Amino acid sequence: MQLDAMSNDPVRNLALAVDAVDYHTAGEPFRIVTGGVPPLKGKTILEKRRYAAEHLDHIRKLLVCEPRGHADMYGCFVTEPEDDGADVGVVFFHNAGYSTACGHGTVALVTWALESGFIRPTGAETTVVVDAPSGRLTCVASVTPAGVSGVRFRNVPSYVLARGTLLRVRGRDVPVDIAYGGAFYASVDAALFGMPVEKQGLDDFIALGREIKQAIEGSRTIVHPEHPDISGIYGVIFYETLEDRPGEPLVQRNVTIFADGEVDRSPCGSGTTSRLALLHDAGALPDGRVFVNEGLPGERFRGRVIGTTTGGAGVAVLTEVAGAASLTGYHSFVLKATDPLGTGFLFR
Fold first, then answer.
1. Gap between the Cα atoms of 99 and 101, Å rounded
2. CATH class for the domain made up of 3-154+327-336
3. Which residue, among 214, 258, 220, has the nearest Cα to 238 in the 3D structure?
4. Predicted TM-score (pTM) of this structure
5. Prior bond to 340 cis, omega within 30?
6. DSSP assignment, residue 40?
7. pLDDT digits (tens, 9 = 90+) for 274-299
8. Which residues are catalytic?
9. How would you classify the pairing of strands 88-93 and 125-132?
10. d(CA 338, CA 348)
11. Residue 171: partners with Cβ closer than 8 Å, 6 or more residues away
12. SS3 of 274, please?
């Protein structure tokens, strides 16, 4: 058979065709949808998020599920901002649905927007304002002739919800802290389980993360006091301290288990914000002290508390988190109408 006789066959009978650009931030993937999707309807980003869940979930599944993705894939739809006060809007998605916040995704989105020309850089330090489901984020990108070398973003006000909540986990009581950083995270000292934060323990961390999340949500209601769409425990952070010397940055390593057993390879940007709220509340981050958060691949985010504020949640901290993203690929994903697996599957 002549190859040219089949040259047009792959583009016949397509049920879906979606373009995307992939980045990674500190090792965590981020798939940005750039074509093949209608505009998301809604006045607010939370309304657009609901629209995506109701009308575009087949696109999410196509891009996240195997064989085109995997259980730890992450991505977003790019949207119009809520008003002229922002440059771009975003709706994040993962293996179980749609998140309200994503720090690594924010860094990747801003990097893509400037490197692709979607937003034109204004100088070596270019400000990009992003409307996310959790709120408006002011981001500053460091732009070089080679591209964007890093992005720092100011997150939404973040606060401690609970400290030392005792949960029955694997036959004993384990203290868990809960804080908000654009989504709600539970923080657990990995030493309580005698486990170093290393990739060899991932299966145990996934199982523990699911168990802790289920135990918290089974015992109390977790909801943002001003935004009821933001609810539930999004992730469980297992951390260990690497360096804690007076006058120097506090350095920790973590692994975050979020969504449906998904493993964050990065230090988790919104999770880093929740850690900042907890550490500041505990007096471990006096004014000016930097928090360095390391993910399993060894890449790091740097964060700091830049002030405090008040709101419906009481006292909250204002934070800044910095990281860097790298381009990994350009994709045109398709689904043929005859594909027996449809939008795909997940084994985990």
1. 6
2. alpha beta
3. 258
4. 0.95
5. no
6. P
7. 999 999 999 999 878 999 999 999 99
8. 102
9. parallel
10. 25
11. none
12. helix
